[in-house]
Write a structure and sequence with these properties.
This protein has 252 residues and is α/β, with parallel strands linked by helices. The chain folds into two domains: 5-62, no CATH class; 65-248, P-loop containing nucleotide triphosphate hydrolases (Rossmann fold), CATH 3.40.50.300. It has helices at residues 5-13, 17-33, 37-64, 85-92, 95-98, 113-126, 136-149, 152-161, 177-190, 214-225; strands at 103-106, 131-135, 164-170, 195-200, 229-232, 241-243, 246-248. The strands form two sheets. The chain has a five-stranded parallel beta sheet with strand order 2-3-4-1-5. α9 (177-190) links the parallel β3 and β4. α2 packs antiparallel against α3 (37-64), α7 (136-149) packs across α8 and α9 (177-190) runs parallel beside α10 (214-225). It is elongated and about 70 Å long. The termini are far apart.
Length: 252
């Protein structure tokens, strides 16, 4: 059964996209099942609410700018990566974001650190939390660009406003003084009630190799590690390996 053109036009003008997309099916259902007016309206309103929730989640995921699409549901716990299934499921509830708890994901190249961080960020978006994903090198470039454009304070405010900030590949190379000062400023603006996920190959006790100033290193380390959850991934690299012209890539 098809809705009238007038009804459809009203739904379009009111931007009730979920209702517009489902009304034909709901009219057919109403006639088939003998739904009364309240039942019919309730189903239409639920369709609209579901559509808006899905659109919000997709918007949050898009604005997060993840480098790869990953979900916690796709993690293979049978593979030995020292992942605790219960702990990952607990983190998947995103209570850590609400509590302002940081997560440090440590491990060698290719064991799935970025995948896991992105999966946790994806879970955050699906729970309605604002998220930003940056590779450390890209964040440094963005800080330099913001300074050149005179928008540095605005960038700090954006970083401070998101519920979850993901910094990927921390310590891939030593930071210059301006770079680790920018990082400190961002973390300081976020305060103690916002969550940050860090992926790194460098153990916390060796962060002085990345941040040469002892005072700044201690301040950044303290902000990131106090009451933080540390996930240590182990094993061989999962990077694509070419064999006989084929490429294979296992998930975490």
């Amino acid at each position: 059964m098809i809705a009238s053109d007038l009804t459809t036009n009203h739904l379009i003008s009111l931007r009730l996209t979920g209702m517009r997309e489902s009304i034909a099916a709901r009219l057919t259902q109403a006639r088939k099942d003998g739904l009364d007016h309240e039942e019919f309206l309730s189903l239409l309103l639920q369709d609209e609410a579901d559509h808006r929730k899905a659109a919000k989640i997709q918007g949050l995921i898009k604005r997060a700018t993840f480098k790869q699409v990953s979900t916690l549901e796709e993690i293979d716990f049978a593979t030995n990566r020292s992942l605790d299934k219960k702990q990952i499921r607990d983190l998947g509830t995103c209570r850590f974001i609400l509590d302002g708890v940081n997560i440090i994901i440590l491990g060698p190249t290719g064991v799935g650190k970025t995948y896991l961080a992105s999966a946790l960020g994806n879970a955050g978006c699906r729970s309605g939390y604002t998220t930003m994903f940056y590779r450390m090198n890209n964040l440094i470039e963005q800080f330099l660009l913001a300074r050149a454009k005179g928008t540095y304070l605005g960038m700090l405010r954006r970083l401070a406003s998101v519920d979850l900030l993901i910094l990927d590949d921390f310590g891939i190379k030593p930071l210059e003084p301006q770079h680790f000062q920018d990082l400190y400023d961002a973390l300081d603006e976020r305060g103690d009630d916002k969550s940050t996920i860090i992926t790194t190959q460098v153990p916390v006790e060796n962060w002085g190799e990345v941040i040469s100033d002892p005072v700044t290193c201690e301040a950044i380390t303290d902000r990131l590690t106090s009451a933080a959850v540390q996930l240590v991934l182990k094993g061989a690299s999962y990077r694509p390996k070419r064999s006989g012209g084929k490429t294979s890539l296992d998930k975490v």
